[in-house]
What does this fold into?
Amino acid sequence: MGNEESLFFSRLLTELTLSFHILYATIGVGVPLMIMVAQWVGIRKNDEHYTLLARRWARGFVITVAVGVVTGTAIGLQLSLLWPNFMELAGNAIALPLFMETFAFFFEAIFLGIYLYTWDRFEDQRKHFLLLIPVAVGASLSAVFITMVNAFMNAPGGFELVNGELVDINPILAMFTPAMPTKVAHVVSTAYMTAAFVLASIAALRMLRGSDHIYHKKALFLTMKLGLVFAVATAIIGDFSGKYLAAYQPEKLAAAEWHFETEGNASLVLFGLLDGEEVKYGIEIPYALSILAHGNPSAEVTGLEEFSPDELPPLYIHYLFDLMVTIGMGLTLLSFVYVAAKWRGWKFIESRWFRWLVVLGGPLALLAIEFGWWFTEVGRQPWVLRGIMRTEEAATTSGQVDLMLILFAGLYLVLGIGSAVVLTRMFRRNPVEEELADRAAHKGGGPA
Amino acid sequence: MTLEIVGISVLWLFLFGYVIIASVDFGAGFFNAYSAFTNKEHVLTSIIQRYLSPVWEITNVFLVFFFVGIIGFFPKTAFYYGTTLLVPASIAIVLLAVRGSYYAFATYGARISHRGYIYMYGLSGLLIPAAWSTVLTISEGGFIDLVDGAPRLDYWALFLSPLTWSIVVLAIAAVLYISAVFLTWYAWKAGDSQATELLRKYALIWSLPTIVTATGIIVELRVHNEAHFDSLLDLWWMFALSFLLFLGTVLLLWRRKSYGFAFILLVGQFFLAFSAYGVSHYPYLLYPYLTIYDGFTNEAMAISLIIAFLAGFALLLPSLYLVLRLFLFDKDYVQGKSDYHA
Ligand code: HDD
Ligand code: HEM
Ligand code: HEM
It folds into this structure.
């Protein structure tokens, strides 16, 4: 196998592992916060339903965490196995957040173990609730640290480059690059948002399947409210991310928007087809691109013409960006309508078609996560470290990457199917109604 | 003490931690599969559920800590080991996935107790140490060549070397021995006399191969890497002490006394041997290409990693203590009198 092929298969394997890991990781970051909210509401209102909600979510969470840990271990090793030259160079400047991430994992793992095995062990529920805080903080911090590494890849900083070597390294500045604030904030808020919509979609599905227990209604209302909050936050932060791109990675923004010539009053084109430099069938929103890039309808936006063609990312990232934004807007609208309707007492949200929309919300949010990552990662090409190291220089020279690709594809298939089967079985064997009745019977007796 | 030494000592310490707690985990899976195979009642299943399920994720983080840390302190290892370890490390990852999913899917989730799964889980406990232990063999040198400036691993030479196989056998024997000694203690605390007897027997059985292969490897090294062999001999007193502790463990087990103390002696035995091996390997990370000095990161990064480590460790220790208190030293929990799992 030549180096060309090693590069090709290394790319494929990295993409595969990251795309698989990110689904579980996003849930791993978002769900602990949701459990926390539910358990807190349960304590405050002294409402068994919310407590049970937290407990059932926690049970499902164990399964997704396990797959998150396993695939995370895979990607952590693969970064060194597949991109040794990148890790050797970047390790000098950005090892600190990677290292701190392992401590975040430690806390998450330790307190998750304790939390899961101490339900009802404390007289005072609030003590048990406290154990969840390090889990949620640890999970969110691991997202913060790993995203710092990714921000460094997009806008390397905190060192001087002399003859291809990094000198004068400042690890703290390398963590706080210009890409960091928007990226970290967007990743964390999308994780919360996605977790909320995924849990909402489970509640809606149960209701469609005929259960009209008040438990599911409470679950749905709670998650839709949380979903709305984080969807709005995501859109606002996403707007800032656009401004970051305009300032620091204008070629990524221009490619995402098919913006060929530098000009003011730039309009934003959604979807469409490219014919040469002509966009056909697109939806044009006047001035929107100038607003997204600079917050001013007449501001000038840099076009693709200003960059050398061999430093431009592929233009298909346009669709990835549009799909992400469309899903984001759609989910904001959906949750807004739901919450408004609850408030005004409109009945159509109890109709089957609306519930089906809510069911779709979870998978769509996960898709938006994938689109967002593919957009930002493919949009960084041809660089692995923007302006410093090209992806092809970073890859391994090992000849067995193709075999490993097959091996891991098989593994992820088994893990994906396995986790889905186990989750459905777990909840089907133990329906809410039964569990609520059990707990009522046990009240006053020993631990349930 | 130089920054290089601080860095490698921290990593070595965590690697040692991983070796001990992962051995307990790996061995338990194997013994469990073995008793399923011989159709004995599953004496170990409840131990796996009570103790190992809550902590497997923590065990895994020790490994992650080690490989992230070594790239952080010694970025050049990514170049040499990253390129060459693709196959053994990938296999180890897949096997680790079998274990992680077993805890989540089978003991926690849907309680799938398919026999094939139990066997795979048990077998992975032997194959993972075998896969990782090849890294130790590779680090002795002689298996990696630089071809056009890129490191290449000679799989045939590795496969045919007696050193490889003796290290693999040692790894497996040590896993089973460490695990059996620990589990003897745990079963005794749980008041399960049947399991205690069985595990005590396993511990005694596996003590012999452990010590024999360990000695054998020292002899092999004389042929394979004389420099390393010579520095090993300089540390003979550490090995001698280690051997005395080994005798202590076996004696206590034999006389059915103080299983807890026997396990502590065992940790001491392995700590001494592990340290002596590490010290004698100094300064090489990979014979003869890479030492801890030329592979080291810059000073600013080294200092910030060490500060991060100290801060993280200060938070970590109390939490680890909490876990041990809840799952290892809590009588009611260990004896299965209280079950509070979500
Ligand atoms: C639920 C998922 C989701 C949703 C609804 C959105 N995003 Fe997003 N977006 C992500 C999930 C995501 C992500 C997966 O988290 C990315 C990939 C890498 C990153 O930093 O965040 C991302 C990246 C990303 C970037 C690139 C940042 C960079 O490359 O540095 C921009 C400009 C936006 N987003 C903008 C938006 C806007 C204007 C949205 C309007 C609603 C939006 N995103 C919704
Ligand atoms: C978890 C969400 C992520 C996903 C889904 C993702 C996806 C991708 C994709 C699709 C590429 C391929 C670009 C191309 O070759 O055309 C890529 C490249 C890369 N990403 Fe990410 N990425 C993620 C996060 C990260 C993070 C946080 C890091 C760093 C710590 C990282 C490291 C890399 C590296 C080293 C490459 C270069 C190799 C390549 O081009 O395939 N990724 N990623
Ligand atoms: C931005 C994208 C990512 C996010 C948000 C993220 C988040 C997480 C979270 C929350 C976990 C804990 C398991 C869980 O709760 O499901 C996890 C596991 C893990 N992740 Fe990721 N991750 C991302 C990308 C990466 C990348 C690129 C790497 C490679 C360096 C990585 C390395 C790991 C490792 C090693 C684990 C296992 C830790 C353990 O043993 O406990 N992650 N990740």
DSSP finds 14 helices and eight strands in chain A.
